[in-house]
User: Fold this.
Amino acid sequence: MSSSLSSYPTSRSSPAAGDSTAEALPIVIVGGGLAGLAAAAVLSQHRLPVTLFESRPRLGGRASSVVDASTEMLIDTCQHVAMGCCTSFSKFCEQLGISHFFRVEDQLNFVAPEGTIVPFAASRLPAPLHLTNALLRLPYLTMNDKWQLARGIRRLVKLSERDASDLSFADWLKQNRQSAHIVDRFWNVVLVSALSESSERISTKYARQVIVEAFLRNRHGWEVHLPVRPLTEIYAAIVTELESRGVTVCVQAGVERLETVGDRLSEVVLRDGSRSTCADGVLAVSFDRVADLLPAQLRDHPELQCVQNLEPSPISSVHLWFDRPICDLPHAVIVDRFSQWLFNRTAIHASGDAPLAAVQTDEFATSHYYQVVISASRNVLEIDSDEAIARVLADLQAIWPAAKSARLLRSRLMTDHRAVFSPLPGIDRHRPRQQSPIANLQLAGDWTQTGWPATMESAVRSGFLAAENILRRRGIDAESHVQADLPTARLGKWFLGL
Ligand SMILES: Cc1cc2nc3c(=O)[nH]c(=O)nc-3n(C[C@H](O)[C@H](O)[C@H](O)COP(=O)(O)OP(=O)(O)OC[C@H]3O[C@@H](n4cnc5c(N)ncnc54)[C@H](O)[C@@H]3O)c2cc1C
Assistant:
């Protein structure tokens, strides 16, 4: 990818002599994750000069790839999926011409606790009834579970946002008499992977949002969009597009601080001491980095101090290379076990245009590569990596007998300790708006006020919103890039009380 990236210029140019207006200066984006890239996409569409600084050698932030040293294979640090309800993320992909890097899965495969594979797909019934048959067919839920679930979903939908926001989902489950059985086999399966938290650390508002947006509002909301190539390859295509629009993308360009003159952001100072004067800035780093980078006068600002109240949650992925296939499903949702989702990366890549990776060593050229994802993985952090891998392997062997005879060529555990912020009850009070108290400084990142939990959708929305604030400040009248929710069918409107 680096060949298509501008190498980081060693000295930053000052505003050209004769540039009398501040607006001729670049808009500087700090952070090349999805939030920063989304802001760059919108601003460059309006032909505004943009320079993006990313401290790492690669783009993508928490959603990115690394080269695995043993296999020499480019692998995503963790499998990322979007869903049909992620409308702004889809728009972002469309605008940058990368939609073809994703395949849409309209069937999930649930692995029952006793190992049976249960396909899960929509019927022809309109939303919100489209998944009713699939739910009724889940053999590991009793009739009583299904009745409790139907009652629970109905009550959850009726809850107002105000009542839901400060209530923990664990309390809601108790209040609504959802049994431990249905919690372990339905609610946790859906919500822990969607929100990467346990029910006592989830705001009922966000639990409700997942159920409504993904499963009830529209028949496509729940469909899973899977990248068919490593994410870093997708960013290469994004960079090509952004550079063709005049964006300067600088990697290995860590920003040390933002400087102000009076109440205006004036320049960013890079770690190597060079400076970049700017007209506007977008600070698009993760929530735990923002305090160190804010101009001094904002550090104690009440609107921004609250960011320190956000708490992180870990996500782990176990990467496994076998000498032969262990299952032929592209992915599977594993119910009520240590392992949560399996992704058959070899099969998923095979569905793309190119083979898995050109750089893999001979030993691994014919290997079969799988990823098992465990969200809210504090249980993984409590044990050593060999034990975590052994537990995942035991799960796979119990489900797919072929995993017993297959030779495990390599395994690797990767945990991002600060993968997402926990969607705790009352969390939105701690998420600032994109417009910072300094008029020409925007904030972006999945943690800012987007109405979404920490996801690629939230990151993209934040970048769009930050860029739109800049357009508005410049008097540029543009349609909002943040997309509306998927349309709601008439029956859905009645059911959701819309
Ligand atoms: C393991 C894992 C699994 C996940 N799975 C999913 C999933 O399946 N679906 C989903 O929707 N979401 C998932 N997420 C969440 C998703 O990755 C994030 O919500 C999203 O990528 C956040 O993007 P961002 O741009 O807000 O922040 P980040 O990705 O954190 O980007 C911030 C960028 O700023 C850069 N930066 C920091 N400091 C500086 C500095 N001083 N100078 C310059 N640059 C700097 C960082 O290097 C980084 O590139 C997952 C996250 C993790 C970690």
Observations:
- Confidence is low (pLDDT under 50) at residues 6-20.
